Amino acid sequence: MPPYYPRLDAYFDRIGYTGSREPTVDTLHQLSLAHVTSVPFENLDILLGRGVDLDPQVIERKIIDGRRGGYCFEQNGLFYHVLVALGYQVSLVSARVRWQRPREFIPPRAHLFLRVEIDGQSWLVDAGIGGLSLTSALPLDDTGREYSTAHEPRRIIREDGKLFHQVRIGNEWQDLCEFTLEEMPPIDREVANWYTSAHPASGFRSRLFVARATPDGRATILNNEFTRRDRSGRAETQIVTDSEELLAILAQHFGLRFPSGTRFRVHGSALPLFN
Asked: Is 160 a catalytic residue?
C-alpha cells in the first residue's frame, strides 16, 4: 500500500477508545474489542448499488465520518493503517471463509485479515469476519490450544498443510476460515473485492448481512431476521416485516442511519422487503 496516515484522533473517537496508544498486546486486545463493538460489519452499499471502493481515504470517510461499517477489505484495511501508525508490525493475509461450509467445498480466497508481530509472537487480528469478528487478538499458535477472547473461545489447528481458525459454539468447534499465511497484495485485494461486491454468484449480493458485537453478545441481521444472542448462545430472533422497521433496527442497534424510504435490493430475493 502507498503511504497513508489515518486520522487517529477521529478514529479513536469513532470507536470510543481512550486507552493507551503504545503498540503492546494489551492495546491490541483493547482496540480489537472497541472496533468490533463500535463499527458494524455490513454489505449495505452493495445492495444500494454503490459498490465498494478500497481507497483508504474513501474507507476512512465512510467508516469514520459517515459512521458506517463495511466488510473485511474495508474494516481490516482501515485497522491495518491504524495499527501501522501506532508502530505495530502488520501484514495483510488472505484466507477462505469456511463458516458453515463443508471441507470438500472450496470457497474463493476472498477474505483479508491481519497478522501482527509483537516481541517475537505472531497474532491474528480480524475485525471483518461477519457475526464472529474477533474481539481480542488471537495468538497464531497452530497447536490447537484453546484461547479465550472477549466473546467466543478460539483456536487454530493445522491439517494437511493448511491452517484453520476455529470458533467454539457451545461444545462444538467450527471452521471459521482457512489460510496458509500467504500475504494478499493490493492487486489480489482489488480482484477479490470485485468478486465479493459485484460477481452475480457473490453471497454479498444475494443477502443483507449486518453484524456487531455487543458488550454481552452479538447482534445480527440476515435478510429479514434480526437476532440477538447472549454469551451463553441463547438467541432471540425477530422477523422484520417492512423497510421502515428495518431502518429503525439498523439505527437503534447498529448505529446505521439511512433516510426514510431507503430500500436495499437483494439480488434474487422473493421477500417483499427487498423488492
From this structure: no
> Pick the catalytic residue: 126, 165, 175, 177?
126
* pLDDT per position as a tens digit, 11-55: 999 999 999 999 999 999 999 999 999 999 999 999 999 999 999
Single-letter code of the amino acid located at 125: V
Task: Choose the catalytic residue: 29, 81, 111, 151.
Answer: 111
Helix axis angle, 72-86 to 186-198, nearest 10° = 150
Place of cell 509483537: 118
The verdict on whether 177 is a catalytic residue reads no
Reference 17, options 9, 25, 6; nearest CA is 9
Q: At 7, phi and psi to the nearest 5?
A: -80, 90
Q: Which three cell numbers stand for residue 172?
A: 462444538
Q: How far is CA 238 from CA 223, 241, 244, in A?
A: 11, 9, 15
Provide CB contacts within 8 A for 200, sequence distance 6+.
267
Q: Between the CA of residue 261 and those of 107, 254, 257, 270, what are the distances in Å? A: 35, 18, 12, 19
191, amino acid identity: V
Amino acid at 131: G
Catalytic residue among 29, 35, 45, 72: 72
For residue 109, the 8-state DSSP code is S
β-strand pairing of 111-118 with 121-125: antiparallel
72 is catalytic: yes
